[in-house]
Every structure is written in structure tokens, then in C-alpha cells.
Specification:
By secondary structure, the protein is α+β, with helices and mostly antiparallel strands. 34% of the residues lie in helices and 25% in strands. The strands form two sheets. A ten-stranded antiparallel sheet has the order 3-4-5-7-6-11-12-10-9-8. Strands 1-2-13 form a three-stranded mixed sheet.
Length: 310
């Protein structure tokens, strides 16, 4: 699988104009580093990501556009690799990572994670050089009508390293899996660490079912990261309170076109507009996270419900 994906990336960047242009542009992407809440973050200026950051994901807009993840609608130059009998591994033509993949289901079904978390862990094991991520339908997914994961090469997201240094104590344990709390008081992640995939999946089920589902939604709001390190799976759950922060809709100097998704939760904020890249501050990053992530009291209640379910 590793060699097949390497060949796919090589071929698509060589032969597909859109992919080649945007991957070449990554060499000129600018970044800034911040410390926010005592933890490392980066901000990336990436104009090609405007297509995702500004995506219209309301019901009417989704209904009126064709699905860009359905096989019948893929660009003629796009190629893929089958996985697991019902996924296709594709090169993402609008990359954030030096190696960025999109992994849609072959069927046009809604973006839902409840019964697909084990697939996410299987992808993390098979693509062990990558972090797998999932954006909830109102948490950064630009195709909430088509189930998909994404993957980016390891070593890119600050959270990959910072979570272990910031973990404080277990919330609960189940067999060979532990659900950790961290001292990250802005994102309020809980992190599953497990040596058996089935135990990780059970802890995820418990945590998922303990989250409240907002009115009008079909699943709790969350972003997920998962990867395999040696003999253990790591899966980070970022509970969300809002889709987009107020600055996204503000006018004039107050406007910041930032629509947080899993990559942002992982510590890399994406700014498709140069003005936002140049003016954003650590205080604004903290304010955005405080607005879109679960608040302190809701987080406390979530943990308590988890404990009651184990």
C-alpha cells in the first residue's frame, strides 16, 4: 500500500495540471509560529484552500451542486486506489500537507462517523506514515453529503507531539485502551491511546454517545485525528460547539476568513487570504478556539457522562 500511494502521488502531480500547480505552490506557502495557551500552533497562508474555507455547506447549496467526491464527477485526470472494499484513496488536489489524500466512500452517503470509526483505525494502520482525519458535517467538512476521511503525512501537525506532553490523567480506561485528558483548556480534546483497535473503538463509542447532539443535527459536532505509532493507536476527539466563529461573518477589519476543521484543531490554522495571515494574533487564535470548541462546563459534563457509561 505504501508504494502504491507513493506511485499515485507521483503520477497525479506529474500528469494532473491542477494537482501539479497546487503541490508546486506548497513550496512557496508561508507559515507563522505561535504559542497559544502554552501550546504550539502554526498559521499557514494557503490561497488554494479558499475552495474549502469558503465552501457553502447549507442544505440548499449542497442540493444544487454536483458531488465532487462521487466517482462519476471526478476530474478525468484523477486516479485512485481502492481500500477496504468501499473506499477510494485519492490525491487531494488542494493540499495543506506535502502528501495530502482524500478517502471517500464509493457510495454517496452522508458524512457520519458512528459506524465508521473502525474504518478510520484500519486506515491509520494501513497508512502508517499518515495521520487520518475526519471533519464532522458541520465541523469543516466541505462535502457533508459524502462520507470521507482525509490523510496527511506525519510530522506536520503540532498536536502529534504536544498531546503526550500535555496529557494529565485518565478519564476512563477500558481493557487495553485509555481515554486521556490534557491541560489544553482551549480545544478540550480527549485522546484515546490503545494497543487493540477494538478497545479503542469501544472507548470511542462511549465518548461519542456521551456527547450531546445539537438540535437539527444527526451526530455530535466533532473533529477527529487518528494515527498508528508502533503498536498503539492514538485517536484525538475535539468536541465542537460551533461550525464557524463570529469573525468569519464579520465585516471590515474584524473579518477573518477562518473555518476551523481537523487540521486547525491539530494546530495548523489555514488562512486562504493574505490579509488574515499577516494580521492574526495568538489572542485571536485563542478567541476562535474558545468560540468553536466545547466550553469548560459542557466539557466537564461530557466527561461525567463518559464515566457513568463505563
Amino acid at each position: 500500500m505504501k508504494e502504491a500511494i507513493h506511485q499515485l502521488l507521483t503520477q497525479q502531480i506529474r500528469d494532473w495540471d491542477t494537482a501539479r500547480t497546487n503541490y508546486e505552490a506548497l513550496a512557496g506557502v508561508r507559515t507563522r509560529s505561535f504559542t497559544v495557551g502554552g501550546l504550539p500552533y502554526q498559521v499557514q497562508f494557503n490561497p488554494a484552500r479558499m475552495v474549502s474555507s469558503a465552501a457553502k455547506v447549507d442544505t440548499q447549496s449542497i442540493r444544487e451542486r454536483t458531488c465532487f467526491l462521487c466517482q462519476a464527477n471526478l476530474p478525468a485526470a484523477q486516479r485512485g486506489i481502492g481500500f477496504g472494499g468501499h473506499y477510494t484513496i485519492l490525491v487531494n488536489p488542494f493540499p495543506i500537507f506535502p502528501r495530502h489524500l482524500t478517502i471517500p466512500d464509493t457510495a454517496h452517503i452522508d458524512q457520519r462517523i458512528a459506524h465508521r470509526f473502525t474504518d478510520m483505525l484500519a486506515l491509520a494502520a494501513a497508512l502508517d506514515e499518515y495521520v487520518i482525519f475526519y471533519n464532522g458535517p458541520r465541523c469543516g467538512a466541505s462535502a457533508p453529503d459524502h462520507l470521507h476521511f482525509q490523510a496527511g503525512n506525519k510530522g506536520f501537525l503540532p498536536f502529534e507531539k504536544s498531546w503526550e506532553a500535555s496529557k494529565t490523567h485518565p478519564v476512563v480506561s477500558y481493557r487495553n485502551a485509555t481515554l486521556w485528558q490534557t491541560n489544553d483548556t482551549l480545544r478540550h480534546p480527549l485522546v484515546i491511546e490503545a494497543t487493540h483497535a477494538e478497545d479503542a473503538a469501544e472507548l470511542f463509542r462511549i465518548a461519542y454517545e456521551a456527547l450531546e447532539i445539537p438540535a437539527g443535527e444527526e451526530e455530535p459536532m466533532m473533529n477527529l485525528l487518528a494515527w498508528k505509532e508502533d503498536d498503539r493507536w492514538i485517536a484525538a476527539l475535539f468536541p465542537r460547539a460551533r461550525h464557524r466563529p463570529g469573525c468569519y461573518f464579520a465585516e471590515g477589519e474584524e473579518n477573518l476568513l477562518i473555518s476551523p476543521a481537523s487540521v486547525d484543531m491539530g494546530g495548523v490554522f489555514i488562512t486562504p487570504q493574505e490579509k488574515d495571515f499577516e494580521k492574526i494574533t495568538s489572542e485571536q487564535i485563542a478567541a476562535i478556539l474558545s468560540e468553536v470548541c466545547l466550553g469548560e462546563e459542557a466539557f466537564r459534563q461530557w466527561k461525567q457522562r463518559i464515566k457513568e457509561k463505563v
